[in-house]
């Protein structure tokens, strides 16, 4: 069965972010948050800087499949410069998107992340796609508790 042009684009975007992830690494002086997906073994280390309720910088490291790595790369692009409130809404919408729920203005909200809507066809991969977003939510919760 031949892949459609949209499927080919989806694969190309995911593979590009997976092979050349944005914001990959660690931020100096920041304590990383570690989160793992015990189902498949994906692990993410997330570091972020928050100033005046805005994420000013973010980085991730770890080991994961192409979906997990691509999602982390896309997530980091989407959240830099956003307020914590905006990010919480983005995280909720992203979770809906990858579970097959239609979300308005996905390209404007997530950039390349709109391509991850296709993950909904593979329920076992949803945890891979949401790992970085769940790590971010946990990091923001810890930040709020430590204020």
Automatic annotation (TrEMBL):
GO molecular function: iron ion binding; iron-sulfur cluster binding
Matching Pfam families: NifU_N
InterPro entries xrefs: NIF_FeS_clus_asmbl_NifU_N (IPR002871)
SUPFAM superfamilies: SufE/NifU
Domain NIF system FeS cluster assembly NifU N-terminal: 10-128
GO biological process: iron-sulfur cluster assembly
PANTHER family (alphabetical): IRON-SULFUR CLUSTER ASSEMBLY ENZYME NIFU HOMOLOG
NCBIfam families: SUF_scaf_2 (TIGR01994)
Family: Belongs to the NifU family.
UniProt-recorded name of the protein: Nitrogen fixation protein NifU
